[in-house]
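User: Please fill in residues for this 333-position structure.
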């Protein structure tokens, strides 16, 4: 009997201890919930994975830039990017406009302002960390389709993606989707500069021509395949610091069709950024690496840092750049 009574006491003490521990844990959990409830929303966003997209302006590694590389950079095409490579490589995706072919093929078919970059230029672009280059511009065919097609093959071999031109219509005008940190981002590129005869066809190479039909098809495809859709335009008037009506029309149309961000190139000077229906339009990023040292404006540019959180564009940060007398790009402090 005494043994049975003792066992009952021990069991009762054990139950009290268990109950005390449970109550303690419940109170602790309740306090944690109350503390979390008092935290600002930004706390939770900081815990999500952040993605940094970095867009830069026109890149041309021929002519005066090539001469500086030869005379002051020992022929190393990393030279223009030496002062910004660390900054550039911090981005999850780095995107720019390649203003002309990278090739040793083709013959000059453009004006006196025709560019063809040495194949060694690819080493500089890889060093800088470029992930995507847009080829939809008025210089990619300066040395005929042969040089453009060679450029496409060289970029593929180098592991650098491209948009806005291709060996056929689908490659030129369909989105390039990049996945990073479980977020799919689609990139499209278009231009309405040059000749409409340059546009890619079903079975022939060329650029993606900017018109309503191509824009609608491309954005629909991008939205079907990705979380975020980015449209790159090569448009506008050279050396004008304000976007023209055509730029505004197609940029607004892109947003209306579902694009999440629009980035422009071609004017060689920085133009304004517009917030249209809660989405950003950077009309022109100006020159990134170029040899137009005839004005202060053409020696300046903008890098557009885009913060993506929770599969959405959360914020943008315009960052000023400038070119020194050796045509090396630097950040403006």
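Assistant: Residues filled in for all 333 positions:
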């Amino acid at each position: 009997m005494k043994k049975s009574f003792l066992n009952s006491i021990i069991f009762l003490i054990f139950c009290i201890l268990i109950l005390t521990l449970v109550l303690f844990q419940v109170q602790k959990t309740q306090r944690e919930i109350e503390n979390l409830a008092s935290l600002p929303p930004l706390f939770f966003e900081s815990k999500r994975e952040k993605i940094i997209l970095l867009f830069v302006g026109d890149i041309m590694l021929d002519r005066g830039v090539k001469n500086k590389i030869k005379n002051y950079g020992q022929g190393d095409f990393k030279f223009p990017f030496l002062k910004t490579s660390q900054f550039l490589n911090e981005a999850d995706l780095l995107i720019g406009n390649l203003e002309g072919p990278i090739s040793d093929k083709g013959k000059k078919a453009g004006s006196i302002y025709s560019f063809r970059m040495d194949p060694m230029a690819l080493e500089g672009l890889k060093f800088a960390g470029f992930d995507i280059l847009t080829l939809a511009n008025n210089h990619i065919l300066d040395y005929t389709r042969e040089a453009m097609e060679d450029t496409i093959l060289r970029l593929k071999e180098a592991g650098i993606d491209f948009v806005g031109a291709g060996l056929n219509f689908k490659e030129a005008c369909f989105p390039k989707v990049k996945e990073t940190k479980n977020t799919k981002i689609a990139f499209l590129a278009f231009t309405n500069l040059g000749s409409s005869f340059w546009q890619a066809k079903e079975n022939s190479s060329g650029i993606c021509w900017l018109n309503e039909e191509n824009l609608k098809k491309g954005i629909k495809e991008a939205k079907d395949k990705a979380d975020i859709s980015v449209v790159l335009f090569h448009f506008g008037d050279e050396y004008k610091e304000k976007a023209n009506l055509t730029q505004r029309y197609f940029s607004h149309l892109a947003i209306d069709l579902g694009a999440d961000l629009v980035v422009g190139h071609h004017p060689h000077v920085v133009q304004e950024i517009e917030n249209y229906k809660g989405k950003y339009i950077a009309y022109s990023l100006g020159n990134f690496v170029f040899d137009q040292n005839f004005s202060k404006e053409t020696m300046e540019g903008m890098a557009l840092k885009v913060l993506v959180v929770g599969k959405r564009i959360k914020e943008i940060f315009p960052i000023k750049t400038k070119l020194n007398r050796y045509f090396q790009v630097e950040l403006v402090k």
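For context: The chain has a mean pLDDT of 92.
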